[in-house]
Amino acid sequence: MKTLIVDDASVNIRILTRILSDYSECHSANSGQEALSKATLALETSKPYDLICMDIMMPGMDGIESSKRIRDLEKNYTQLKPAKILMVTTIKDDAYVKKSILAGCDGYVLKPVDKYNLLNHLEKLGILNRKKA
User: Fold this and answer.
1) Which of 41, 51, 89, 109 could form a cystine bridge with 3, CB 3.0-4.6 A?
2) Is the backbone of residue 127 left (phi > 0), alpha (psi -120 to 50) or beta?
3) Residue 132 domain-assigned (yes or no)
């Protein structure tokens, strides 16, 4: 699995990388614009991200706008599987959940991120298979 973690706070990128690195090759972006650039390059080289963990509140292009633009970009690459986009945020507001879904997001996880909640969410999205002991 290949993951792009997008957050303007480096501590949040480190936390998600620590959780996901056993399951995925993790890349990071510090802004919505950087995320769009990295997603574009990944699609152009036919090596798309399987998962994008996206913060909502970032300066400049926020996570919702970035997600919309990534979804629009993916439409040009129909031969490639679109990424699962998971909003990872502190915002609990139902209006933001709805905006995220309308932007093409596949899920919504609240910070602080609980490792097992996140991994269970990824299993439900069908992009992670953990062997159950």
Assistant:
1) 51
2) alpha
3) no
* Structure-block tokens of residue 67: 């997600």
Which CATH number fits the domain that encloses residue 95? 3.40.50.2300
Res 61: pLDDT: 96
Contact present, 17 and 45 (Cβ < 8 Å): no
In a domain, residue 131? The reply is no
Domain extent at residue 27: 2-124
The proportion of the chain whose per-residue pLDDT surpasses 90, expressed as a percent, equals 94
**Cα–Cα distance for residue pair 45/26, rounded to 1 Å:** 17
Cβ contacts of 54 within 8 Å, gap of 6 or more: 6, 35, 63, 66, 67, 85, 86, 87, 88, 105
Residue 74 placed within a domain = yes
Question: Which pLDDT score is estimated for 131?
Answer: 60
Tens digit of pLDDT for each residue in 75-132? 999 999 999 999 999 999 999 899 999 999 999 999 999 999 999 999 999 999 866 4
Average pLDDT, the chain: 94
Segments in the chain forming alpha helices (H):
10-20, 32-44, 63-74, 94-102, 115-124
